[in-house]
User: What shape does this take?
Amino acid sequence: MERSCTLAGVNLRQRWTMVAAVLGSSIVFLDGTIVNVALPSIGESLPHTVFSVLEGQTYVTSGYLATLAALLILAGALSDFYGRRRVFAIGLAGFGLTSVLCGLSPSLELLVVFRVLQGAAGALLVPCSLSIITATFEGPARGRAFGIWAAATSATSVLGPTLGGLLIQAISWRVAFLINVPLVVLALYATIKYVEESRDENATGRFDWLGALVVALAVGGLAFGAIRGQAQQWHDPVSFAALIVGAIALVAFPILMTKRANPLIPLGLFRVREFAMINLSTLLIYGALYVTFGFQSLFLQGTLGYAAFAAGAVGLPTGLMLTFLSTRIGSLAGRLGGRRFLTAGPLVMAAGLLWLGRIPSTSAPWTTGPIPPTDYWIDVFPGTILFGLGISMVVAPLTSTLMSSVPVSNAGIASAINNAISRVGQPLLSAVIFIVITASFYSSLAAKVPGLNPNDPALRTAVQPLNQPVAGTDPAVVAAAREASTDAYREAMVVGAILLVGGAVVNFVGLRPSSLAGKSEASDPPTRATATATSEATAPPG
Assistant: This one.
């Protein structure tokens, strides 16, 4: 930031920088939610020749998410190397252009292609937005800025499906993409006029394109394999091939980084205690989020018979609490440090999941006979309030602690690594847990109905939509399936709570009591230029 500016000028620049950063990241989150609402209309209206409707709809979402995840680390490294303002502006322009192409797509196949390109452009925006905030704000003001960022992106996630549904119903599914254009124009204006350029001044030599290719294969392969595997119920060899490629690349990547003169990721960053611990807790906490939201939606609609809108509305209190509490908690974390929030928050979230998991089932020790009716205000609402309060204590402090644990010169790559871990860790953890919980469901079903073959494809088809079972399905099987589904849901909530407690323990043990309160930047972890030559002495002790 230019020190010669007046205070008023600095404040104006900071405000518009926040506008650019918030809009740039929000359109990525908005696109991830609003397009899901548009999928039925897209399948009905667009012609297709290569894909079936279901395959095309799957690729419209998975192609975007997998490309976004695969290129996050590359985008963060590019921003540090070539300049965050420059890369952010390119990402905005690319996202706006591909949004127009998506909105005007004449076929399902072309829409899939444009969505992949849109994911590539979106990958430039999220890490850049956080690194731009890091370079613009210092001390407690940085914590408040991250709180505003978290509140805005949370509001986008909450309002996206509702706003998207109204616009799609009133106009067309194409609005789901074209709505990005005015937001991109405003963000570009703010970026070009007010955002100052920043980069890693220690970056020298050539950019590590080989490392970028390997990490893209690692993250993209794991993300695509996990996403597609779940969509295909793990009956597709392509999913396993992608996971194998991703795993091989993941093992090869750190070995490659030790041999590169200018590595894409300075491995010395992981010697920084706070950085390593925050990324580990991110894997656990965001894995729990994915498990929670995925299984809750299935249970509410499939077992309890909630309509899609009602099931979505269950998460509204959580979204509203995130929106209105994140800024305040971000400010407190900037003054007091993140450790206490990052320890208490996951524990409160875990309490919320355990409350949600108390929904009775016939296998619960305190129940006998049929499952009693579920009361939303007793069985669901208190759990969502606890969960919302807990996650509001996590998002902004996690981001500010992460970004304060590294020097500003490495802000882009640090943000990208954390985003990649959250986006890859979610589907991978969810995939493993989904397999285990699904196996438990069918095992429980077989135990409740003697002589039943749980591997019968016809049975699996019949019991999936439990509130609207296939005609002719034995009512006893449907009743048993509802009970088994409740058992599986309770197990999923307990697993999610265990992951959250694990995240709280990691943060309590791994972060210092006054972790990063009021600091303007980390104490001096290794930069890109010196990463391969540094020792433990460059990182904080511990």
